[in-house]
Design a protein that fits this description.
Layout lengths: L1 H11 L4 E4 L7 E5 L4 H12 L4 E5 L10 H11 L18 H4 L8 E4 L4 E3 L2 H11 L11 H13 L2 H7 L9 H7 L2 H13 L9 H20 L1 H25 L11 H15 L10 H11 L2 H6 L13 H8 L1 H32 L3 H17 L1
Parallel strand pairs: 2-3
Antiparallel strand pairs: 1-3, 2-4, 4-5
Helix pairs in contact: 1-3, 2-5, 2-12, 6-12, 8-16, 9-10, 11-13, 15-16, 16-17
Length: about 375
């Protein structure tokens, strides 16, 4: 059957696989990345619903999700052939498929081996899992309208814009993130052109790669010629957070729907965590309800296991205190060390050495590890 053949090819595209849960042959397969807004949302739902699944961790740095086996899986789940694709709209910094069109090379993707289905949009995946395994129900009838409102608010929030361009007036992204994002579009376009020029690329997938290429050309144009759009997206984010603050005040907390934990809280956990990771706490410094909610939602034991304590999540100096408080000294120290390592990797010696010095200045453990890292850099340099 086509389903089994396509899924088998997709599995062969990735090396990193782990089973989450006790079932060695689980019903669901999740193709995701450790640090991907949409992937994190889906992982959160799967873990909240206590679902066993096969986790395929996709390496975004090497664009593993551009491999034809995976793209064919997305195409199978895409549905109708006339579905609007990315590349036909001016880029806004949003990852919303309703706003920007369907991205055929994006993450995550969910496979349901029982019903032989492939689900390809994060919001649809979240709803699908909740419908199939509603324990607990994450769209309670008593506040379904409010949940849907906030799901849309998070979906519209320009997380991708923050990754690629930051806040033009207050760029608080970690230095190595800025270095990684610089030229990212060009690297992604180069990989897409490689596949488009590959004679082994199936012809029925070509238009999907072309759509993705158009999208990144639009991203590159915006970053180069329209920095005003990034400023506008930050203002839009502040408006969204202000709306959230009002709703939290009305509900009385601790969750978006008062005492009911819902899908909206999962979405906001992931969204607010991204802003915190990039040092954007200034966005809610005058929003007391959001501040209180942030502390509550980021401490959720299941959600944090799917996001900032999930193996491979991006390090950040802005996460050190959160990790110390919620996960302990070992993960907090590992985060600090990984900031140093990523700074060397993305920014070279000029970026890595200052981070190494800062790390060494924070106690004897930091000094010892800094010496070891310095020796490694010297030996390889």
């Amino acid at each position: 059957m086509e389903f089994e053949k396509v899924v088998s090819k997709a599995r062969e595209s990735f090396k990193s696989k782990s089973i989450i849960g006790k079932n060695p042959a689980p019903r669901f397969e999740s193709y995701h990345a450790p640090f991907s807004i949409c992937s994190e949302k889906v992982r959160c739902v799967l873990l909240i619903e206590n679902v066993d699944f096969a986790a395929y961790d996709v390496v975004l740095r090497s664009q593993e999700n551009y491999r034809p086996g995976y793209v064919a899986l997305r195409a199978l789940g895409m549905g109708r052939e006339d579905r609007e694709l990315v590349g036909g709209h001016a880029w806004t910094g949003s990852t919303s498929s309703q706003e920007m069109g369907f991205d055929p090379l994006a993450l995550p993707t969910l496979v349901d081996n029982l019903k032989k289905r492939v689900i390809v949009d994060s919001m649809q995946i979240m709803e699908y899992v909740d419908q199939e395994i509603p324990n607990p129900p994450l769209y309670p009838e008593t506040c379904k309208e409010m949940v849907e409102k906030h799901m849309e608010l998070v979906d519209r929030t320009p997380h991708a814009g923050l990754l690629y361009g930051g806040d033009p007036d207050n760029d608080t992204r970690p230095g190595f993130v800025k270095a990684f994002a610089n030229g990212l579009c060009e690297r992604q376009c180069k990989t897409l052109k490689f596949w488009l020029n590959n004679k082994n690329l199936p012809e029925e997938l070509r238009h999907l790669y072309e759509a993705k290429l158009k999208k990144f050309q639009s991203v590159s144009h915006t970053l180069t010629n329209d920095r005003h759009l990034l400023r506008s997206s930050i203002r839009g984010t502040k408006d969204i957070l202000a709306e959230m603050n009002k709703d939290l005040m009305k509900s009385g907390g601790p969750w978006i729907c008062g005492n009911h934990f819902t899908m909206a809280d999962i979405a906001w956990h992931v969204s607010l965590l991204r802003f915190l990771t990039f040092g954007c706490g200034y966005l809610w410094e005058d929003l007391p309800q959001v501040q209180s909610y942030l502390s509550h939602v980021l401490s959720h034991p299941v959600l944090k296991s799917a996001t900032y304590t999930w193996p491979g999540y991006i390090p950040s100096p802005h996460l050190t205190s959160l990790l110390y408080q919620e996960a302990g000294m070992i993960l907090s120290e590992r985060n600090r060390l990984m900031v140093v390592m990523m700074s060397f990797l993305e920014g070279g010696v000029f970026m890595g050495l200052p981070e190494l010095v800062k790390y060494a200045g924070r106690g004897s453990v930091g000094m010892l590890l800094a010496v070891l890292i310095g020796m490694m850099v010297w030996a390889t340099g």
